[in-house]
Structure formats: structure tokens, C-alpha cells
Amino acid sequence: MKKISLLGSTGSIGANVLDVIERNPEKFQILGMSAGNNVDLFAKQIRKFKPRVVALFDTKKIPTLKERIADLDIEILSGEEGSVAVATLPEADMVVSGVMGSAGLLPAIHALKSGKNLALANKETLVIAGELVLREAQKTNSQIIPIDSEHSAIFQVLNGEKKERIKKIILTASGGPFRTFSFDQMETVTVKDALNHPNWDMGAKITIDSSTMMNKGLEYIEAKWLFGVNTPVEVIVHAQSIIHSMIEFVDTSIMAQLGIPDMRVPIAYALSYPDRFECDLPSLDLATMGNLTFEPPDFERFPCLRLAIDAMEIGKTMPAVLNAANEIAVQAFLEELISYKDIAELIHMVMQNHNPSPLKELQDVLIADRWAREETTKLVTVTH
Ligand code: MG
Fold this sequence. Notes:
Elements: E1 2-7, H1 12-23, E2 28-35, H2 39-49, E3 53-56, H3 62-68, E4 75-78, H4 79-87, E5 94-97, H5 105-113, E6 117-120, H6 123-140, E7 144-146, H7 149-157, E8 166-173, H8 191-194, H9 204-212, H10 214-227, E9 233-237, E10 243-249, E11 254-258, H11 264-272, H12 286-289, H13 303-314, H14 318-334, H15 340-353, H16 362-383
Parallel strand pairs: 1-2, 1-5, 2-3, 3-4, 5-6, 6-7, 8-9
Antiparallel strand pairs: 8-10, 10-11
Helix pairs in contact: 2-3, 4-5, 5-6, 6-10, 6-14, 10-13, 13-14, 13-15, 14-15, 14-16, 15-16
The structure holds magnesium ion.
Magnesium ion binds at residues 148-150, 219.
């Protein structure tokens, strides 16, 4: 029985993790669970999975949570400290992080510091502090197992192979809802248009990121940290999202991982690694799929992808700045304070105004992150 600490249980990843665990009650036990502020759903999940310890990030909602689960004998923690405590429970065999945004960084680092294997869906952890995160993992010999479908695909393809034999990683992208839009059409994209993703059902922030292809940009950075900063990564648009990514090896042989677009597959793999277990999910029906198409990404229509690649090349604090600027810009777009095209423009401006500094400790990341948030917020108010 694997004992799991789940961070970010009320998000879409968290809900899928719990679904997989619920289907396999003899294999897993939820030991600790953390959430942001969705106290209603969190209370229901706690009642169902009965973890020993829970943490709610939003301290104001702690009284409500206490009331909801007053009849249960469960330790309730709060704030960032609470999430870190859940991430480092001594009895936990594995920590799974489905936290959204940069709030995922600190608990992830602490989980690795305490020697836990980390199943990671939170992109920001590696995007903003990849260098530091890897250093911590190496120190304690703990493993990072990716949950993001693309990185899970690469991780699966690498099984039994040597990292040094990779010629390049081929990172597939669905292209999002505006894959076929013209440059002009993208001028008038609304919040409603952008929230409508063709293949995956996800939260608002990641759906917008997917439509701008910033999501792929963040995944590009994530892939570099996970599979070698010097490993070439090529992004290719594959609208059907059937191939979740590929590796070309030094002998030009290309290996791919295919499957239905359902997050429970990479989640199940991360939980069962290095083994696999049965998933009661529909098989991929290739005959009805028909064609699989591939095309290069268009950096003109999707400037966010280029910005992310540039940020990784510049390195140091630049990816953290890219990520923070994107979070603020996407939020401003969702609140209809800026236009769709402004998202990339704002990020670009913030990157240009940033003087990157080396990542020696967590503080360096946090300072750059805060600076970028303030700078972007300032530009949102100045320009609008
Ligand atoms: Mg992905």
C-alpha cells in the first residue's frame, strides 16, 4: 500500500488523482491532502478519503473547514506552512503535486528536501526554479516523476534507454482553439473563445495558456529541466493530441507514446511507476481516429511560445519572470482589463525590463517573481 500526500486536491489534477486512487483502494492510501480555498469540495474529499492531516491554504476559511469536518478526527493545518507540512509527512511514500501556479514551488522543494519521490503536475516548480529543484532532488536522491501528459510520454519512452542517446525531444502541442485562426482573427479573441479547448478539459488559467501556446512554452522549459538542459527540444503541432510526445534517438529512430487524452493515464503511470496497473478507461481506437497531422508551430501567431524558449535560453531568473508576468497578464485578460494580444506584449515588455540574476537560492526566485508581478501589474494599469 503506497501512502500518498496529495497537494492541490481540489484542482482538476487533484480530482483526477483522487479518481485513480478511488478505483484502486487496495493499492493507495491518502495520508495527507492540501487545497487552496475551495472549502466545499475539500470537505467532501476529506470525508471520502479520510487523510490523517489536511491543510487549507486560505487561512480565512479554516473555521468553515473545521465546522464541516468537526465529527472527524483529522489534523487541520493552514497556510503555506500547512502545505509544506503535508508535503513532508514522514510516513508518506510519495508526494503528488497538482497545485496550480507558483504556490506549488515551496511544498515541492520541501518534499524533495525530505527525500520524497515527487509526482509533479505543477509546471511552475520546474519553470521558475528548475535549477534549485534539481539540486535538491540530487542531494536526497529523490525522483521527480512527471504527470504532465507530454513529459509522462517522454518519461515512458525513456524507460530502459539512456538519456545520452537522445538526439532530440519532440514535444507535441494541440495548437489550442486558435490553431487555424489568421493573425487578424486573433485580434478579436474574447475570454469565451479562449476558454474553449478542443481536446482537454482543464482549468481557466491553463486553458488560456494552451490557447496562447504559453502552456507549450512552459512545457518546453519543464522538459529541458527534466531531461537535460542541453537536450534539443522541438515543438510540433499535432492537433489530435493522440501522440503525447516523442523522442528521436541518436540512430534516428523515433519512439512515441500514444493514448486517449485523459490525465488519469499519466497520473496512473506516475503512481504505479516503475510498474503499471490496469485502468478502466476506453482504449484508443486508431481506426476511427483516421489521420494524425503534424505541422510546425507559428511563432508569429503564437509569440508566447517564442518568449518561453527565449526565457529558457537566457536562463537565470528569466523563466521565473516569464511565468509571473504570464500569470498576471492572463488574469488581467480574464478580467477583461487587457486584450488577448496584450498578453504576449506585456510579457515581452516585462522580460525586456528585467535584468536576469543567477539562481543561488530560493530567495532569488521569489524576488524575481515579485518584481515581475509588480512590473506587469504596473504595465496593465499604465496601458489601460
Ligand atoms: Mg501538457
